[in-house]
Amino acid sequence: MRREPAGDVGRRTILKIPMTEMMTILKTWNFLSENQLQTINFRQRKDSLVQDLVLLCEENRASLKDAALLDIIYTQFHRHQKVWDVFQMSKGPGEDIDLFDMEQFKSSFKKILKRALKNVTVSFRDAEENAVWIRIAWGTQYRKPNQYKPSYVVYYSQTPYAFTSSSQLKSNLPLLGQALTIASKHHQIVKMDLRSRYLDSLKAIVFKQYNQTFETHNSTTPLQERSLGLDINMDSRIIHENKIEKERVQRVTQEIFGDYPQPRLEFAQYKLETKFKSDLNGGILAEREEPLRCLVKFSSPHLLEALKSLAPAGIADAPLSPLLTCIPNKGMNYFKIRDK
């Protein structure tokens, strides 16, 4: 017997939830009553627990909308499992900022997608800071929506930014951009050269909040009181010179990165395109019309903190190249470098 989509989506989502988070997520979902949850043995094997929860959902006649809401909540708890892209919208020349109504935005967004694509399922969940999470299950003109590979969008009302989980369905991006632009009353939309698994860090970068919302560290310790790691048996003149240099490096690093934790990005990518230049005549490369191309990628579990530590650790000179230090200010971790 073939499962109904709602039951299958709900079952798959419940199976993904770690046992340690099960009660928290189910209470956030608020679909099963407190009394119903008390009847469940949460210490039993997971497959038995899932079966009991699915039966309760069936008793409550869970709809596809209910299952989609549970999936959004799970994704909110595990947002770092997605790779997020950032889109920036803008108003037309002379356009004023309109009063924003979240319910009107949802209605308009859904209508635009439905009008263009018959088979699409759109679900919403309001979140903190006037944000709305959107789950989109895409279909085609001839196929029903694929509930198992949805896209997610996080939009902060009255801002020009939207964050989308990277989707394999690239053909739907223009339609998604159109729906976001019209529903939020903007004029155009562009994809920024910024991507990460850490949605909160992306938000901090584009909203310029990383020096406010992230906790500061070591900010109460004066620079001269920090350990400089000097050898007490060294010549006093060398010690003095090393101390001055270390203080300079610390000062320059702090001026560039600040004295607070950095937003979390996993990589920065640089594509270089340049024509071959040589004072010597002739040669294969000299006759080449196509530019030389090179790709350099810096990767780290916490790239900006790693870059921040290079000079103080003596691995690189201070200051670092602006190409490395400009990432938060420019809101980019994809760069294309071409000849001027």
TrEMBL record:
Provide the protein's localization: Chromosome, Centromere; Nucleus
Question: Is-annotated flag, keyword DNA-binding?
Answer: no
Domain of life where this protein originates: Eukaryota
InterPro entries, alphabetized:
CENP-NAC/CAD_complex, Chl4/mis15/CENP-N
Is the Nucleotide-binding keyword given for this protein? no
Which Pfam families does the entry link to? Answer: CENP-N
Per the record, the major location class is nucleus
UniProt KW keywords: Centromere, Chromosome, Nucleus
The UniProt entry's sequence similarity note says:
Belongs to the CENP-N/CHL4 family.
Q: What is this protein called?
A: Centromere protein N isoform X2
Species per Swiss-Prot/TrEMBL record: Balaenoptera acutorostrata
